Amino acid sequence: MSLTKTFQRAAAASAKPPAPRKKRLPPFSIRLSPEERARLAVEAAGAPLGAYIKAKVLGTPLPVRVRRTGLAVEDRTALAQALALLGRSRVANNLNQLAHLANVGALPMTPETEAELCGTLADVQHMRRLLMTALGLKPEDRE
Question: What is the SS3 string spanning 29-80?
């Protein structure tokens, strides 16, 4: 017997049969008029239409949508709004300007007031970093 045949027999003897594949059920489709689809979209209130229809048909609650970060979409929305408000309020910028004026001597400050301003600025920067981390974003260090 040749080496090739010996190898092929050994390979065939040790080969495992392929695992049977699970058959997926075919998708169920439904035709809707534009008015019906619009009505369902309004009722779904931003949830995926397929998930909403499935929950409504089966009588189950709509599942909480979770992203890769592990946060529900609603949580991410709230965190993003808080981060936007923090940025729009310009609190960090105003505190930074006050601290700068205190450092250059253009604003009469006591050491206690200057320390308080610097501490407040650090707190705001820390809140921003925490919010960005909670959103799954990488905060840049500008300190």
Answer: CCCCCHHHHHHHHHHHCCCCHHHHHHHHHHCCCCCCCECCCCCEHHHHHHHH
Per DSSP, the three-state class of 72 is strand
Q: What are phi and psi of 5, to 5 degrees?
A: -65, -40
Is 66 strand, coil or helix?
strand
Give how far the C-alpha of residue 20 lies from the chain's centroid of Cα atoms, to the nearest Å: 36
Q: State the DSSP H helix or E strand holding residue 22, giving kind and residue range, or none if neither.
A: none
What is the pTM (predicted TM-score) of this model? 0.38
Note the pLDDT tens digit of each residue in 49-76.
888 888 889 988 877 665 555 556 666 7
**E strand or H helix at 124, and its extent?**
helix 111-134
Name the token pair of 88. Answer: 């729009």
How many Cβ atoms are within 10 Å of 95's Cβ, its own excluded? Answer: 19
Rounded CA gap, 102 and 81, in Å? 32
